[in-house]
Design goal:
The chain is of the alpha/beta class. It is built from six helices and ten strands; from the N terminus they run βαβααββαβαββαβββ. Helix content is about 35%, strand content about 20%. The longest helix has 20 residues. About 40% of the residues are buried.
């Protein structure tokens, strides 16, 4: 469901913010490392912080990124020079304080609403006041995730479609409390890093059909 008011082409937007220099991703499962690989490929000098409570999961996350780098080289999609930059400046941690100076914190861990709200409260207490806070989800509305925060204007859902490093589509949710400047910045950011940003309203997904390999959803 397209939200009214966001019809300017992303290429024409001129946000005051620059591309992020440091991004933290909470969650070292599958989607988190894939988002990390996409970001590092698009912004090679980016500092990427991967955070999880499970150190083994963090090790596997780095292995997954490195495997994607090797596939990119093998299929001649990235150069050896770019590969070296993608592999550089990736930090794994279990300490939330490590993300204190990040420009953007993206949570891609749990779908447990209560736990997620605790995570966002913890993040908000650590990061700078102008840092972006977003969550990758396909079901939970932003209003339920962020309304309890002191500064919800800089928060929203950024929903990547799998596989996150290859699928160009990414949803940006224009929910009631998010600043429209933030939505436009995210649209611009995703556009210039090779994605197709889709602005949608804040609503629960409805399942309209499914097969063994695909689930068809609408908001």
């Amino acid at each position: 469901m397209l939200t009214k008011g966001y019809f300017t082409a992303p290429a024409l937007l001129k946000p005051e913010r620059h591309l992020p220099s440091s991004v933290a991703i909470i969650g070292a499962g599958t989607i988190g490392p894939d988002i990390g690989y996409y970001l590092k490929s698009a912004v090679p000098d980016l500092k990427l912080v991967l955070l999880d409570i499970n150190e083994k999961a963090l090790e596997k996350a780095v292995e997954r990124i490195m495997a994607n780098v090797q596939k990119g080289i093998d299929h001649k999609k990235i150069s050896a020079e770019l590969a070296d930059k993608v592999k550089d400046n990736i930090l794994t941690t279990t300490d939330y304080q490590t993300m204190a100076d990040c420009d953007w914190v993206l949570e891609a861990a749990t779908e447990n609403l209560d736990l997620k709200k605790e995570i966002f409260s913890r993040v908000e207490a650590i990061v700078r006041k102008n840092a972006l806070i977003t969550f990758n989800t396909s079901s939970l509305p932003a209003e339920r995730l962020f309304s309890h925060l002191q500064n919800p204007q800089r928060t929203t859902v950024t929903h990547f479609f799998a596989p996150a490093f290859r699928n160009p589509a990414v949803e940006v949710i224009a929910w009631e409390q998010v600043d429209s400047v933030i939505v436009d910045y995210l649209r611009w950011l995703f556009y210039v890093t090779g994605k197709v940003p889709l602005v949608t309203a804040d609503a629960v997904y409805l399942i309209i059909g499914a097969t063994k390999r695909h689930c068809y959803l609408i908001r």
